[in-house]
Amino acid sequence: MHPDTQKQSSVLLIGPEQGLLDGVAGVLAPVQNVQPVLIVGPVEQSARDPRLAEAAVVVVDLDPRRSESLAGLRTLMTSVSPGAPVIVLTDSFDDGLARWFLQIRVADFLRKPVQPKDVLRSCVQALRAGQGLPEQSGRIHALLPALGGVGNTTLAIETAMILLREGKEPSTCLVDLDFQSSSCAEYLDIQPRLNLEEVGQFPERMDQQLLEVMLSVHGSGLAVLAAPGRPAQPNDVSPDFVLRMLDVVSARFRNVVIDLPRRWDPWTDAVLGGSNAVFVVTDMTVPGLRQGRNLAKAIAERLPEVEPRVVVNRFQQTSLFGTGLRKADAESALGKVFAGAVANNYALVREAIDRGLPLESVKAGNTVTADLRKIVLAPDRP
């Protein structure tokens, strides 16, 4: 074995909260060739600690309300070895502070409260180049509509909420790639923060630091990456930017859910090809079933590595002697690409949208979420 693979890389953990540092050290300890080292106390007390020069990564729990801590962080940045990344954890955060972090070359910053596993991911990404650690990326679910008005955004939001609740820590991000309408933020009643005018044509600027600045967080803990809507404007967002953005997001989050527009953009092929699960959303009408089947077939032919499945939204069970479409009709029309049907509850969905809440917060145990959960978490999904 090459001797470099045996070298221990120290990760210096600095901050006043013993419990937080212990939690981070606990998830770092099992990582091969990584040695966590704790320094309990505010950053200014250890800004010139000689161990900084030997550390592979430095994690600082910072209180930006204390001017002496800000000065201490600036001093610390001059004490670390060249190229050693510094990761900052902070509970007080605004755009001005983010810009200052970028100016002093902080490698990454995370908002508190933060889960130790999120700090681990940031450290692993920082160590990857020097240690040859494998890249970790999140599981990506992409949803695109077969027709207009079939509820694609609603199901994308609910898919993200289902994955969020299934996880042991909040590590799910909803990405709105319909830059013209940008409905995800509207449905959740949050402010979209992705500034396409600033970064849309400059993919090289998108990194973990900028991602943190441009994420919105719903009260449920769901992270949302969405830009303000651009109605009546052509889609001039660089494909390189979209793909770079998704790379950064998938490195940061365990689960990524993408709300795609109906139109086919220059980056759609790459987004679908990079997704773990692709769902075509349609409704329970004859044209809807046909369009869903045709779109799924077209995607499979265009991208052989993708296995799209069709979700039939707004399904309403008819009586035995009724004249409406039955679930068996959908199964027959769609064949093996049929993923499942989601119940119709227009009143519930409308109330949730008007209140900016997930469906479960409006009515726990509702049939829409229950049906979708069976599809999203189906055991036959890879």
UniProtKB/TrEMBL annotation:
PROSITE patterns reported for this sequence: RESPONSE_REGULATORY
GO cellular-component term (any): cytoplasmic side of plasma membrane
GO terms classed as biological process: negative regulation of cell division; phosphorelay signal transduction system
Chain segments annotated as transmembrane: none
SUPFAM superfamilies (alphabetical): CheY-like, P-loop containing nucleoside triphosphate hydrolases
Keyword annotations: Phosphoprotein
MF GO annotations: ATP binding; ATP hydrolysis activity
PANTHER family: SEPTUM SITE-DETERMINING PROTEIN MIND HOMOLOG, CHLOROPLASTIC-RELATED, SLR0110 PROTEIN
Protein name: Response regulator receiver protein
